[in-house]
Amino acid sequence: MTPILLQAHQVSVRYGAYQALRDVSLHVRAGEFISVVGPNGAGKTTLVNVLTGWLKPTGGSVSFQGSDIAGIGPVELAKRGMARSFQLVNIFPELTVGETLSVAVVSRLQRTRNPFRSLSNDTEVRAEVERVANILGLKAKLQTVAAHLSQGEKKLLDIASAIALNPEVILFDEPTSGISTADKHGIMKILVDAAREAGVRAIVQIEHDMDLVANYSDRIIALQEGAILADMRPAEFFADPAMISAVVGTKPPAHIKS
Ligand SMILES: Nc1ncnc2c1ncn2[C@@H]1O[C@H](COP(=O)(O)OP(=O)(O)OP(=O)(O)O)[C@@H](O)[C@H]1O
Ligand SMILES: [Mg+2]
After folding, report:
1. In this structure, what are the phi and psi dihedrals at residue 82, rounded to the nearest 5 degrees?
2. Is 3.40.50.300 the CATH classification of the domain at 4-248?
3. Rounded-to-integer distance, Cα 103 and Cα 132, Å
4. pLDDT value at residue 257
5. CA distances from 207 to 7, 34, 43, 165, 186 (A)
6. Closest by alpha carbon to 7, among 45, 42, 43, 57?
7. Which of the residues 29, 51, 123, 129 could staple to 101 if both were Cys, CB 3.0 to 4.6 A apart?
8. pLDDT number for residue 74
9. Pairing of strands 202-206, 33-37
10. Cβ atoms of 173 and 86 closer than 8 Å
11. 87: Cβ below 6 Å to ligand 1?
12. Within 13 Å of residue 137, how many CA atoms lie on the same side as its CB?
């Protein structure tokens, strides 16, 4: 078995009186592509927030490569080798694609100076920005401000920013949301290829599109009302109509007995 990179042990999260996660335990191994699925409000984003140290759980623990990461925040997270994307695209609309990627590259290179100063002289940063843009198919857009990108390109820029941090593990919160069904597969393929090329060792994604989940996942973790309903391989998951209906929020077709 490959090593466990990321692990949650009996994690609970309360928002005031509301319990968003209860006793969630899971692990992510090197080499895995995991999809987190579940209906709206099931706690998926909350789980990613906890797994990436953005949110400190009210109970339980989260460890990455053996050390506790509860509530460490984004800067420390990147240093340790984890990156994430957001459900709502998290880019600065007034920055160009090149500038956006430079921020990630510079932070990774742990430069202390202002990332926008004398950047054009910095061949190392520029080469790295071009390399990442190239992997994500954004090279022709390096001078374009993010506000002018198409929805799909914005998603790719968000993904590129995570990959530019050179992480070992990336967590994507709905990387294809807001993208037409026809284009979702293209984005997912670019994402997977880019992550592989960048040496990413494991991917966790939240995804509503069951086609993509079935095609790309090594393992599926289903959440329902803040608890783990299933943690299984796609073949097992999709063989169970009750599981699918619990996740997509519809009843199984009448002719299928559950
Ligand atoms: N900061 C917060 N304060 C209070 N309640 C919250 C907060 N964040 C999330 N919640 C609640 O916790 C529950 C889980 O939210 P979460 O965003 O994790 O769901 P989700 O599975 O990502 O849903 P979606 O598929 O719609 O993105 C929801 O009922 C939500 O209203
Ligand atoms: Mg969410």
Report:
1. -130, 145
2. yes
3. 13
4. 35
5. 20, 10, 13, 22, 15
6. 57
7. 129
8. 83
9. parallel
10. yes
11. yes
12. 14
CA of 101 to the centre of ligand 2 (A): 25
pLDDT at 130: 95
Give the residue, by CA position, lying nearest to ligand 1 atom 18: 43
Whether residue 52 has its Cβ less than 6 Å from ligand 1: no
Residues of the chain with pLDDT under 50: 111-112, 251-258
Residue 172 alpha carbon to ligand 2 centre in Å: 10
143-186 confidence digits (pLDDT tens): 999 999 998 999 999 999 999 988 999 999 999 988 888 899 99
| CA nearest to 74, candidates 114, 107, 109, 111 | 107
Instruction: Give the whole-angstrom CA distance, residue 89 versus residue 177.
Output: 10
Sequence ranges of the domains in the chain: 4-248
Per-residue pLDDT at 182:
86
What tokens appear for 95 in the block?
Answer: 């920055």
Q: Are 163 and 171 in contact (CB under 8 A)?
A: no
What's the pTM? Answer: 0.90
